[in-house]
Amino acid sequence: MLCVLSACKNSRSLQEPTRLAAPYSWTALWAVAPLVNESGTSAVDTIRITDCLTEELQQVQGINTIPVTRTLTVMNKLRMRAVTTPQDAQTLMDTLGVNGLIVGTVTAWDPYSPPTLGLALQLFTHDDRLISPRTDSLPDQSTTTSRAGPNAAAQAAGIFDASDHTTLESLAIFATGRTHPASVYGADIYLMKMDLYTKFVAHQLLEGLLFNEQQRLAAMTDY
Is 143 helix (H, G, I), strand (E, B) or coil? Predict the structure, then answer.
């Protein structure tokens, strides 16, 4: 009986975590290019951070992702060390068969308590594949440029220092519904493991990226 009561008590304390959603009426397929290290320290594992970013992106409603290993394999075949130009982005998107590609850099990295992580992300898209039915009916001049190649559709950047109280407030909101109710650490668990902190930062920047993409699509529709 005590076990049943305990289980009921824990179930009542469960909360739904905040979720992100893509601004599309269908499911898009995105990839994340390996991040480039511009943090000033060589200790950064950019592939691990890219993996965390991809895992968090997969949690977004309306977006599916491909594994980072597949992206790396294709880049190796293309002899592409990094995505440095819009042409690189278009080539990689075409070869992978994806609708969108996130390219980014690590701008700050310090895993020691309190951790710091900075990322700068840029979203490239094939707009002719992302156009909604309403936008598709617009005159040709509204999409001529985008169909010629990929657009840097949206950007998001930020440095998240865990000693900053604004960052800690955002972390507390993110951790709600993502930690075990009986855990003595609570949201602090995200400060103890850099992979978890990376997922928090990824979530924050993806939220900004998706918001900017939504605003861009709305502006195209209203044009």
Answer: coil
Residue in the structure block whose two tokens are 């700050």: 108
Tally the domains of the chain.
1
Chain CA centroid to CA 127, Å = 19
First-to-final CA distance of the chain: 63
Please give the Cα distance from 28 to 57 (Å, whole number). 11
- Is the omega angle on the peptide bond into residue 114 within 30 degrees of 0, that is, cis? yes
User: DSSP letter at 47?
Assistant: H
Cβ atoms within 10 Å of 198's Cβ, excluding its own: 27
Look up the pTM and report it. 0.83
Short-list 174, 186, 173, 177, CA closest to 16: 177
What is the CATH classification number for the domain harbouring 164?
3.40.50.10610
Which has the closest alpha carbon to 118: 204, 207, 191? 204
pLDDT of residue 223: 57
Nearest residue to 222 via CA among 152, 124, 138: 138
Taking a C-beta distance cutoff of 8 angstroms, is the pair 47, 7 a contact? Answer: no
What pLDDT digit, counting tens, does each position of 3-20 carry?
444 445 555 578 888 899
Q: Is residue 70 one of the residues assigned to a domain?
A: yes
d(CA 142, CA 131): 11
The number of CA neighbours under 13 Å toward the Cβ of 213 is 27
Strands 28-32 and 100-110: parallel
Label the pairing between strands 28-32 and 63-65.
parallel
The domain containing residue 134 runs over which residues? 20-222
Cα(104)–Cα(201) distance, integer angstroms: 13
